[in-house]
Amino acid sequence: MNIRCARVDDLMSMQNANLMCLPENYQMKYYFYHALSWPQLSYIAEDHKVVLTILFCYNLFFFQGNVVGYVLAKMEEDPGEEPHGHITSLAVKRSYRRLGLANKMMDQTARAMVETYNAKFVSLHVRVSNRAALNLYKNTLKFEIVDTEPKYYADGEDAYAMRRDLAKWAEERDIEPADKEAYAVSKNSDDKKKQRH
């Protein structure tokens, strides 16, 4: 297995994995939006079964591994809020689950969020009925439920809004943020806010 940053030529395979694994699906332009806006944040897991990819419009031929999982991620850049990442989608094909691939891809994404964008935390949404995903997020990746969003999904199911503290996670792993000074100032103000509450 190989975990690497996703490239534009991986997007079709990522979309295919999404269609195989999840009820929430996206148009190709949404994958392009992520890949072009935040190219450092999305990752794939590929096995060693080689797939020949042919791009006729560019007369390109190349070999790549078979995509068996992916994480599609972005930054939330709302004015007045601290920089933080968001996991748009995470999927691993059924026969490749329980190998630690989701954990490894999520850690790579978290590292890139801190090192590139000074992200303080990462958020995601998950169906309240998705026990396997909840177990992964809460017990393995240490996300916390911060809210329940009623009727978040198209079929009317509620979602848990979850969050993972990246400042503490990065500090424990000696991961250096993009701007150490800004990160430290922001972290100190966060600590003071917590002490007041």
UniProtKB/TrEMBL annotation:
It comes from the Eukaryota. The keyword Transferase applies. One of its GO terms (cellular component) is NatA complex. This is N-terminal amino-acid N(alpha)-acetyltransferase NatA. InterPro entries: Acyl_CoA_acyltransferase (IPR016181), Ard1-like (IPR045047), GNAT_dom (IPR000182). The keyword Cell cycle does not apply. Its EC number is 2.3.1.255. Residues 1-167 form the N-acetyltransferase domain. It catalyses: N-terminal L-valyl-[protein] + acetyl-CoA = N-terminal N(alpha)-acetyl-L-valyl-[protein] + CoA + H(+); N-terminal L-seryl-[protein] + acetyl-CoA = N-terminal N(alpha)-acetyl-L-seryl-[protein] + CoA + H(+); N-terminal glycyl-[protein] + acetyl-CoA = N-terminal N(alpha)-acetylglycyl-[protein] + CoA + H(+); N-terminal L-threonyl-[protein] + acetyl-CoA = N-terminal N(alpha)-acetyl-L-threonyl-[protein] + CoA + H(+). GO terms for biological process: dauer exit; determination of adult lifespan. One of its GO terms (molecular function) is protein N-terminal-serine acetyltransferase activity. Keywords: Acyltransferase, Transferase. Belongs to the acetyltransferase family. ARD1 subfamily.
